[in-house]
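Thread: Newbie trying to understand structure tokens

Hi all, I'm a second-year student working on a class project, and my supervisor (Dr. K.) asked me to get a predicted structure for one chain before our next meeting. I've only ever worked with sequences, so writing a 3D structure as a token string is new to me. If someone could post the tokens and maybe explain what I'm looking at, I'd be very grateful. Here's the chain:
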Amino acid sequence: MNFTEVAHGFRRKLQEPTGVEANSYRLLRKVVGVLGCALPFAVWWGAWLYCREARQPSISAYYYTSARNILVGTLCAIGIVLVCYRGPQVKDRLASLLAGGFGIGVALFPTTPEHPTPVQDLVGTLHYTFAAIFFLAITGMVLLLFTINGKGTWRNKLFWACGLVMLACVVIMGTQALLSDDRKLAWKASGWTFVLETAAIEAFGVAWLVKGGAGGGGGEGKAVTRS
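---
Reply by user tm_fold:
Sure, no problem. This is what the structure looks like when written as tokens:
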């Protein structure tokens, strides 16, 4: 087998799903949407119901609560589905691979605890890096890929709205790096990171649910159709 045959085989695997596969991918989109919408509330209410733990400053901070397994399990599930997802075009596939891979990284490399060791500091830095790339990747998918076709439809407008909400949340959270240490502590105590992360992930979840056909419109149809 020469290089040309290998390249052709790889390209074929990245091509659009056809026939019955389309139904499977609509289901995968709905699974991603449900998991995304459920995540913030699952960790929040799970920690409170199980151990009466207060709301944490960020979703990632629930790693150090009784809701750790919910957090890690849900993030890994989202990441695995995104990695396995084969979108209608090569760029969809590559974007979902990127988002899924870094989503799994967010789950496996926890955020920095209150009094970190040097190793925990390093792991926390990796966590923040993975989280930033994950949020940028899923925002790009919604804004740049979901909106390609169907201009003027309610679904397209909703994708734009969800994408802009996600982008705004990512930008606002990114400004923390410019704050002084005292202001960073005040920001952390305010709980705004949790609120913004929740808003971004809810918008992400809604976009994927609609992409999968929730709310009417049927989602993406056969391989020749792009929503």
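A couple of things are worth pointing out once you decode it. Helices lie at 3-13, 21-51, 68-84, 90-108, 118-145, 154-174, 181-190, 192-211. Residues 21-211 form one domain. Feel free to ask follow-ups in this thread.
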